[in-house]
Amino acid sequence: MSFYPTLLRILPLPFLRSIAKVAAYFINQNPNKSMLWKTRVNLGLAYPELSQEQKERLARESVTKQCFSYIESGKCWAMPPEWSIQQIHTVHHLEVLTDALSDPRGALIITPHLGTWEMMNAWVHQYGIPTIMYKPMKDSGFNAFALHARQRLNATLVPTDASGVKALFKNLKQGGFSVILPDHVPDPSGGVVVPFFGIPCLTSTLASKMAQKTQCRLVGLSCFRREDGEGFDVYCDDLNDPALYDRDIEVATTALNQAVEQMINRFPAEYMWGYKRFRGGDKTVYK
User: Fold this and answer.
1) CB within 8 A of 279, min separation 6: which ones?
2) Does residue 274 surpass a pLDDT of 80?
3) Residue 229: exposed, middle, or buried by beta-carbon count in 10 A (0-12, 13-18, 19+)?
4) Where are the domains of the chain?
5) In contact, 281 and 200? CB cutoff 8 Å
6) How far apart are CA 39 and CA 32, in angstroms?
7) pLDDT confidence tier of residue 40, bands split at 50, 70 and 90
């Protein structure tokens, strides 16, 4: 596995993106049960108002952006943290993040599978040491690569189990900050079926329960490559809808999904539509 980090470290990012573009081209030639197929299904559910031509164009663009995100994530894992920080050019509404981090109630950073979220990890760590849940990847070699990169940042990594949840709560109670990816499909015991882009699907309740119990600040963070390919921009969104703290977990989780939708709608092609996000509701969606 050490060969691949070395290769990612040596090859310049524009060249790696060219490789990703070639990979996307071949994926887009295989529409059946591939990333393109899942992306088409998801976009059809999320944006029914688009014409077939618009959805097809968006689907193919999204496949390319997803391939870019994968290769960019690998590049930032292979490079020192300082390199990733240098890639961040413009930060929109930074005061939203800094105000939340100074709040004694703590801050929960909501980071969907949107853009190249891995690229801003080192940048976020300039503002403190977050507690982050980490689920090992299936490929042991790739997992070791990613885990080593994250451990360099001195983040507090906790498992995705009861002990990890307890650690997140404790950190927030002490005024710290934690990072959660809110849009993975959880086990049924850890979620509720609520609308996402109007489609009922299984949604994690963890972030909403944390907000309910700690009254922490909620901030959405997303990171996108610039149109000229020169670096990335970060967007900080103040998630301040009172419904996010509602005692009814379905109301709170629905509000969180709506907040994530708004983040995605900024650049829809940048979302990881190749993931079967709409599971847990209509069982025929992906058949």
Assistant:
1) 185, 201, 202, 285, 286
2) yes
3) exposed
4) 3-270
5) yes
6) 11
7) very high
